[in-house]
Specification:
- The protein has 2 domains: about 5-25 and about 170-390, no CATH class; about 55-65 and about 80-165, no CATH class.
- It is mainly α.
- The chain is about 55% helix and about 10% strand.
- It has a 3-stranded antiparallel beta sheet, with no helix packed on it. A 3-stranded antiparallel beta sheet has the order 5-6-7, with no helix packed on it.
- The chain is globular, with a radius of gyration of 25 Å.
- Helix 3 (about 65-75) packs across helix 9 (about 295-340) and helix 9 packs antiparallel against helix 10 (about 345-380).
Length: about 400
Amino acid sequence: MVISKKPLHFIAALLVAFMPLVSSANPSNDSTAVEAHAVEATHESTEAHADASHSGSAHAEPTDIKSQVKAFTKHHVLDAHDFTFFSDNKEGKHYGFPLPIILWDNGFQIFSSSKFHHGEAVAESNGNYYVINHHDGKIYKTDATGTLTEDEKSGHPTNARPIDFSITKSVLFIMITAILMFFLFSSLARSYAKNGGIAKGAGRIFEPLVVYIRDEIAIPNIGEKHYKKYMSYLLTIFFFILFLNIFGLTPLGVNVTGNLTITFSLAILTFLITNFTANKNYWGHIFWMPGVPKLMRIVLAPIELLGIIIKPFSLMIRLYANIFAGHIVLMSIIGLMFIFKSWIGSSLSFGLSFVLSILEILVAFLQAYIFTMLSALYFGSANEEHHHEEAHH
């Protein structure tokens, strides 16, 4: 198997083309946050939030600017049950639209997220009462007063949680991405059929990427014989991650690929496809490795079996950590503009955030490429043919 040495040149050329479209919108990104980065600067806010943790309807807003920056970033790192474009804190107004809440609690409970009034009220449905916890953004069952009881050690609510099938902000953008991909690439496929293999329309912008994934990722790592059955997945996973990464760089405030559950789901797909399409030679190398003493085979088998689990785990953590960490740093630097309150400090913060915005565009393409490349490597190892020299050992 061969790892191509050309991807960075290709991605760099793409960034030059796409930079004017996406980089200018990034400084107002509100999709991510971190507590670790702001521990020293936000110690004052912990006492203000402690009183609010016992009630879903009571939420103490931070007063100093450092605590407000932390609260803002912490709020936007979480998924949300409504979509808010921006808020006027002085007037207490939020501009956006609600999303449907779908809960399973002795039957389906379906209502609009507007009942929560952006987490400030208790929602009632068929005699059941629910509240959104401000600290984790999850829905808990409660009483009419919205009381949440907490565990003394962990501080997490002990109230029952209904099974949540709601259309959250992340789910909404997954749907938008799926629809966008369907129309773009179905248009590309139709243009191929009508114009004798020549792409036309908006889909032709992505034709070089499709060819690149086939010629530089799939064929070198999987092989001419088997690559075609994996192409649909490799193309889907690449553009799915890429589009969601780009959405995360806009002022829309989405953080889909920086969500551990999303990257876990993507990694599980690669894990299942790898192991369900693997040949006998793949499993033979895991459980009874040829060419080594029998005693060593017994020792190596558990290690190789553990490697099956480690591979998707590394996919999950790599995508999540890179996207999340990039947003963390960017949001922290943007927050410094409001803390410095001087033209020198704000100018430096703006300049650095602009440079990081450009870097984040590179990361958006690079992480989509890496996830696709590693998936192709795993598929290639699962379909590797038996070597004749091993039969003589």
